[in-house]
Specification:
It is a single chain. Helices cover 25% and strands 23% of the residues. With 271 residues, the protein is α+β, with helices and mostly antiparallel strands. It has one domain: Alpha-Beta Complex (Creatine Amidinohydrolase), CATH 3.90.230. Strands 1, 2, 4 and 5 form a four-stranded antiparallel β-sheet that branches. α1 crosses α2 and α3 runs antiparallel to α4. The longest helix is centred in the N-terminal third of the chain and has 22 residues. It starts with 14 loop residues before the first helix and ends in a 19-residue tail after the last strand. The relative contact order is 0.19. Bound molecules: 2-amino-4-trifluoromethylsulfanyl-butyric acid and cobalt (II) ion (2 copies). One cobalt (II) ion binds next to β4 and β5.
């Protein structure tokens, strides 16, 4: 009942913290760009893990997923019907697969979290559609971020678009506040209602990371307690950025300095 009067639990970052977030986010973005360049049929998810691990250490950073709540690897690799938290291993990429690679770095005590879905060789029209809907969904969510906007505005923008394209938005996993902690308040749902939810304030940092399915939004978690798959076996795609609410709008902290290899090859998909 007193919820209306409770002050926000969302941390507001100061200038030094924001600078640290910029640095770690750019390191994560660089590793994601680099790993995208090696995606090809025949590559194993274990090899992706080794690449990300080595690339991260070379930057002087640490891979946040490794040993996080028992996660055994340095990166999440989610192929086709895997929604998120895929564990790298013996799976070998095949022509026509799609793969989300989710990179999170820790540098000087701060986290930067970013992911993208890549095309493995030549993919089906259906695969291309779910990937491009997910890519655009993230973009539309980011476009809602400004002081005074509500968290529900992000979710509504994403949900309206993705569902309008005949896709569905995963409910069980959400974006999150990020900073010294990997997963902090607020929870950033990728569905919701316009004008609802917490108001955004300058200095907040959080991720937006919509998971979009070609079929139903329902997911199951496999016996390894990590791998989330679509219940109906349909394809799922995801993109993630770490963002900062600025005085005037938004800064995409994990923005890349070049187009993604094996992903940004259909730039005018919705035009
Ligand atoms: N990087 C994921 C996210 O976007 C979280 C992965 S948790 C892990 O929030 F333990 F699987 F790495
Ligand atoms: Co995240
Ligand atoms: Co992530």
């Amino acid at each position: 009942m007193d919820m209306h009067f409770r002050s926000s639990a969302v941390e507001i970052k100061g200038p030094a913290e924001i600078d640290a977030m910029r640095v770690v986010s750019q390191l994560a973005a660089e590793t994601l760009s680099a790993v995208g360049e090696i995606v090809r049929p025949g590559l194993s998810t274990e090899e992706i893990n080794s690449f990300v691990h080595a690339h991260t250490l070379k930057q002087g950073a640490r891979p946040a997923p490794l040993n996080y709540k028992g996660f055994p690897k340095s990166v999440c690799t989610s192929v086709n019907e895997v929604v998120c938290h895929g564990i790298p291993g013996e799976r070998v990429l095949r022509d026509g697969d799609i793969i989300n690679i989710d990179v999170t770095h820790i540098y000087k005590g701060f986290h930067g979290d970013t992911s993208a879905t890549f095309y493995v060789g030549k993919v089906s029209e259906e695969a291309r559609r779910v990937v491009e809907v997910a890519r655009r969904s993230l973009c539309l969510g980011i476009a809602q971020v400004r002081p005074g906007a509500r968290l529900g505005d992000l979710g509504a923008a994403i949900q309206e678009f993705a569902e309008g394209q005949g896709c569905s938005v995963v409910r069980d996993f959400v974006g999150h506040g990020i900073g010294r902690k990997f997963h902090d308040e607020p929870k950033v749902a990728h569905y919701g209602r316009w004008g609802k939810g917490e108001r955004l304030k300058p200095g907040m940092t959080f991720t937006i990371e919509p998971m979009v399915n070609i079929g139903s939004w329902e997911v199951d978690v496999l016996d390894d307690d990590w791998t989330a798959v679509t219940s109906d076996g349909s394809l799922s795609a995801q993109f993630e950025h770490t963002v900062l609410v600025t005085e005037s709008g938004v800064e995409v902290l994990t923005e890349r300095n070049r187009p993604l290899a094996n992903s940004e090859i259909f730039p005018d998909y919705f035009k």
